[in-house]
Amino acid sequence: MTGGEENSDGGKTDFHVLVVDDSTVVRMVHRMLITSLGLKVQEAKNGKEVVDLHINGAYFDLIFMDMEMPIMNGPTATRELRAMGVKSNIIGVTSCTFESAHKDFIEAGLNHCVSKPLTIAMISSFLPDSNNK
């Protein structure tokens, strides 16, 4: 994905977001919220897809990573991404309310962990100031 393109939207579409969740409904809702902010969104169904995307050269400014997924869960995918040198802002998204689970997920290399569902305000809080207006 290329960067540095001039856009009439103030550069918002140069900000790429990845939504990772095994639930089709959750991915659809999160996609709608993120695109309503004028951002580009890509989706993945599990952690392995995320790792494969990065192995193949994909780059995302922000990744919303579900914790519990089949094939490869969020903590494992986050550890692998960090071991690969991925510097993206990775936000764990979970329906689990146990603080110990959040702590373990954060220790895997997250920048932050939040509870589902995402909201516009929550998403906006992770965007650069120029996208926050």
TrEMBL record:
<dbReference type="InterPro" id="IPR011006">
    <property type="entry name" value="CheY-like_superfamily"/>
</dbReference>
<protein>
    <recommendedName>
        <fullName>Response regulatory domain-containing protein</fullName>
    </recommendedName>
</protein>
<dbReference type="InterPro" id="IPR001789">
    <property type="entry name" value="Sig_transdc_resp-reg_receiver"/>
</dbReference>
<feature type="modified residue" description="4-aspartylphosphate">
    <location>
        <position position="66"/>
    </location>
</feature>
<dbReference type="Pfam" id="PF00072">
    <property type="entry name" value="Response_reg"/>
</dbReference>
<dbReference type="GO" id="GO:0000160">
    <property type="term" value="P:phosphorelay signal transduction system"/>
</dbReference>
<feature type="domain" description="Response regulatory">
    <location>
        <begin position="16"/>
        <end position="131"/>
    </location>
</feature>
<dbReference type="InterPro" id="IPR052048">
    <property type="entry name" value="ST_Response_Regulator"/>
</dbReference>
<keyword id="KW-0597">Phosphoprotein</keyword>
